[in-house]
Amino acid sequence: MGEVLAVKRIKGLLLALAGSVALSSCGASDTSYEVYGQFRERLKTLGRGNEAAEPGAEPSRASIAAFTDPLILARVDRTGGMSFIVRTRKYGATEVWQSTDDVSITLIGGILRATRGLGDDLMSSDVMPLGMQADSGREHYYFGGDARTRLVTFACTRQTLGTERIIVLERAYSARHIAETCQAGETRFTNEYWVDSRGVMRQSRQWVSRGVGYVTLKRVVD
């Protein structure tokens, strides 16, 4: 993801969601680009005390102590690149999160719905919220080499693995651990979700594509 806010600089972790411009013409429920503009400079200051940290190390909780707006620490597992992202749009359960250089992801109920800027992006997806069905499916849309949108339909199974104690940026939470295993042909992945007692998706590890692999998202400020 472009500018490293916590540890190091990663270009293009997550670019602006396709369709976010179209979405902005709909009724946004609670936030806007003006909000992001206000947060931009504050986001740039996050983690500046962590430059001496070892590569791949997370920022400290102290580095975000003054930040009270919703905040996620995002990491591309394959590269180790990390950045904070802030919420700029909310439409019911759908949320758009952006970094300082206007890259973004979209989540619905905490579940990854789309990415940009990763090279092999998830253009959009049709996913079931957690708790809806134990066995369900997913529809993922990708661009092919011919610049046409390609649909991949996955058969998925979800199961609850129990309650665990997790640490999210130096803070402990009790969270329900849910695993979602999906397959389409030779492509198989397992997403993991940790939902706290308030129903907040506190942490997740979610698959984007063959080319990108997994992205880990940690909700550090509510």
From TrEMBL:
Residues 1-27 form the signal peptide. InterPro entries: GfcB (IPR021308), YmcC_sf (IPR023373). It comes from the Bacteria. SUPFAM superfamilies: YmcC-like. Keywords: Signal. Pfam families: YjbF. This is YjbF family lipoprotein. It comes from Rhodovulum iodosum.
